[in-house]
User: Which sequence fits this backbone?
């Protein structure tokens, strides 16, 4: 299984522990794109964690759209721990999408301020 | 509890467009329970505003604090230290909280982040409904515990109007006819005769009359 080296994985005990604040923070910290990988529907150890995560991601996408940052940089996918190939595909989908969208606009502002290349 | 909903972030951002540093004050009372102005919502709004402003190349510094309640002077006083060098205070409480902050921090621009909607409760997680119209003299003992003032779309006090159809109100098929509910409940309780009692017109002077209302309990006053 091969996937883009630009991806950083943050492990959570359950996708249902994901919080709006954490997702927004990743973008403030400069992430170009984020996806939350939850277990397959029906497979959540805590029954509904993945459904909750999906709803929260949808809400944060709406906030990102509302504030003009763009919700496309965030997404949610269901996949199981056994689906390495599917994981690689999702990473490709997200990296392709981010390549098209360009870098996180907040990072560009920082770079400009610090006199770096935008 | 008081039910409030957050204003669009853009509207809140417009209120503080000239500010460089703002204090966002959440409230751990009603608006935490109805998930519109608690600690979490305060952080989410702060983050949203920072991102928005950074995109505009006008970075915004935020400070956040969540008061136990914004409708009690002693808790509002605890915010003092956070207000010193901010250009504005954004309150995520109901309209009461916003006013308490504006009264205490007289030299600060205090703005509301929420629209205060009604008083009510939740039916399921994430769904709140209006239950009381704050009429000032409760008559629920006469109406089977169902408030006709707020749950009847016309606030009728003497039975359903002609628009009641199959238990639904004529304003929407999603709204139960309060008077149908009242009748059904009184019938189930064997108290239909209570609905036949005569009552003088409701005394609305106890409601929105004579300016803002007060409630006084001298026995609990400290000074
Ligand atoms: S300020 Fe408003 S929201 Fe907060 S506890 Fe008081 S009444 Fe409830
Ligand atoms: S009768 Fe008046 S006080 Fe009682 S629930 Fe209705 S509006 Fe509220």
Assistant:
């Amino acid at each position: 299984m091969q996937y883009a080296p630009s991806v950083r994985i943050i492990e959570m005990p359950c996708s249902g522990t994901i919080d709006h604040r954490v997702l927004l923070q990743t973008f403030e910290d400069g992430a170009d794109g984020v996806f939350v990988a939850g277990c397959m529907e029906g497979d959540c150890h805590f029954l509904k964690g993945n459904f909750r995560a999906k709803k929260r991601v949808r809400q944060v996408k709406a906030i990102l759209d509302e504030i003009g940052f763009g919700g496309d940089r965030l997404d949610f996918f269901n996949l199981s721990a056994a689906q390495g190939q599917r994981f690689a595909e999702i990473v490709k989908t997200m990296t392709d999408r981010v390549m098209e969208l360009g870098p996180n606009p907040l990072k560009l502002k920082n770079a400009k301020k610090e006199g770096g290349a935008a | 509890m008081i039910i409030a909903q957050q204003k669009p972030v853009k509207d809140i951002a417009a209120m503080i467009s000239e500010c460089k540093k703002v204090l966002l004050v959440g409230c751990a009372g009603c608006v935490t329970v109805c998930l519109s102005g608690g600690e979490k919502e305060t952080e989410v709004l702060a983050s949203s505003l920072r991102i928005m402003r950074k995109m505009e190349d006008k970075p915004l510094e935020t400070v956040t604090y969540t008061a136990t309640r914004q409708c009690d002077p002693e808790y509002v006083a605890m915010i003092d230290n956070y207000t010193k060098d901010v250009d504005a205070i954004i309150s995520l409480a109901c309209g009461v909280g916003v006013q308490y902050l504006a009264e205490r921090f007289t030299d600060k621009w205090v703005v509301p982040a929420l629209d205060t909607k009604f008083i009510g409760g939740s039916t399921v997680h994430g769904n709140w409904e209006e239950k009381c119209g704050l009429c000032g003299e409760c008559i629920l003992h006469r109406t089977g515990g169902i408030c006709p003032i707020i749950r009847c779309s016309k606030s009728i006090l003497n039975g359903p109007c002609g628009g009641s159809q199959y238990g639904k109100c004529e304003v929407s098929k999603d709204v139960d006819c309060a008077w149908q509910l009242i009748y059904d409940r009184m019938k189930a309780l064997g108290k239909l005769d209570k609905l036949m009692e005569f009552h003088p017109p409701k005394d609305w002077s106890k409601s929105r009359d004579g300016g803002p209302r007060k409630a006084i309990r001298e026995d609990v006053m400290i000074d």
Q: What stands out?
A: Chain A touches chain B at residues 19-21, 24-25, 27-28, 63-64, 66-69, 105-106, 109 (CB under 8 Å).
